[in-house]
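User: Predict structure, ligand alpha-D-galactopyranuronic acid.
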Amino acid sequence: MNRSINKLLEVFAMLRLFPNNKIRQVRELEGDWDFQPLESAERLPVHYGYRLPVPGCWEMHPAFSTYRGKGAYRTRITVEKHGALRLLFKGISHTGIVFLNGVRIGEHYNAYTPFELIVRNVKPGEHELAVIVDNTFSEASALHVPNDYYTYGGIIRPVAIEFIPDTFIERIEFTPHFSKGIWSADIKAYVRNVGESEAVLHVHGKLGNSSFALGSLVVKPRATGVLTLNRKFTAVLPWSGKHPQLYLLELQLLSGEQVEPVDDLIERVGFRTVTTEHGAIQINGEDIVFKGFNRHEDHPLVGAAIPYQLMVQDLELMLDMGANAVRTSHYPNDERFLDLCDERGVYVWEENHARGLSIEQMRHPLFAKQCADCNREMVESHYNHPGIIIWAILNECASDLLEGKEMYRTQLSQIRGMDASRPLSFASHQRDRELCFDLVDIVSFNLYPQWYDDEDPRELCIQARSWADVAGGLGKPMIMSEFGADGYYGYRDPSRVKGTEERQGDILEQNLKAYTSLSFLSGMFIWQFCDCRVTEGLGWLLGRAGTQNSKGIVDRYRRPKLAYAVVQQYYKQTE
Ligand code: ADA
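Assistant: Predicted complex:
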């Protein structure tokens, strides 16, 4: 590829919805890569027989529509100047082993979290970048298991290379506070030294009209140093769903006596607080009720590799129905979708990657590590999104057992240790058996009245409140994190039997009528926004007609079902 095309790609890179750098050179590696299915993950192939888009899912290629296995991707990158490279992978599903010029340089597990690899002393010229991707359900995978959603194969989110100096700003943490009518923020800069010698460094910042020095520090070779500043911002407007005011926070790194910055990092931030008081949730001190959707990143034309335009469409459809919130069930989402939520003022419940794991599955020897990695990567990479107002973990796992409780405790304290500014929750289906509500700030229930049983939604919700009260949730806000019903798109019938669009609408109506009128609820999230592909399987998975979960209010192609108007009626009436 010639330089001018590379340059163009840099300009149009869509890693985020705002520029992350003005100084650091970043190149997105979007395009067609070579591809070859593989028997084993040990060795790269000699011959590549296919071309596949990156980002993309291999299921979209006619030869691989149901392929579960391993495959190698390959591209070539051109390096102009001798130095260090930082390779950024935003999501490989589900395991990626990365090679530069045939040499293995690192690997990562989990489709839904980003990772980076740093390579030093890369020579100018052309280099081969290859990735062995694996989406098999094997002993090496505790979280990606056959499930009620689909683990696609491929490099499903963007890839980029950054040309970094020996010292660079690794990440920023921005934590806003509001006190006595004034906004302030803790700004933390993580500065990394990948060079051979100690570095004396200075960090300068800019936010809106204010410029400031974060300070100076000495960072040893192969180490990361942290600078923290608490600063007042008197002339800023708060971020909220109704007024999503965002600011660019630009940090520059200066080395030694040099006057020109050697590196920079730009984040986009908002001034807002989230609190949980008197049994309710507050944004900037005001009580809020979330009217939301659970959403899987899934589309029949692109799998899990949702392009920007379709993200916008999803968000516009949710807003059109009157929603103000989304739950990223059941994994951390693409950052561009989170960026969009920040921009459109949509509140986000983001959760780690786990769905419906039994205690036997949680005893998997890799479960603790794979969850800990996922939690760390989720919080570190999404810390600055003002839209994210809840961190959550372990949807419908074994929170009814003491053994499970210890795992919930470990993970919740890990997240609280990284971010004390957001409330924590998890979605429980354990009813009166729940043991973990004392560990969280918000109690949340997945209940399916009128679908999996014939209970009355209002009575059940009131009963759930009393279960929570005796199980450690007394005085804590409560959310209905899932409810819904299957409706097969186009199956309309006056009988209104289960599975018709009419019945789905009826069930949604009964549920929404109850929840929008119960003043102790702080939110509700419909299961689910769009139908999604699920793993083909036996047992309960066989019950998923068409190998899809059909509880979407829109189908997989985003065509509205009858329930769309029902949701609109209830969500819009309380706007
Ligand atoms: C669960 C689960 C969802 C989905 C849903 C359903 O509550 O959290 O992922 O499987 O049930 O459709 O039954």
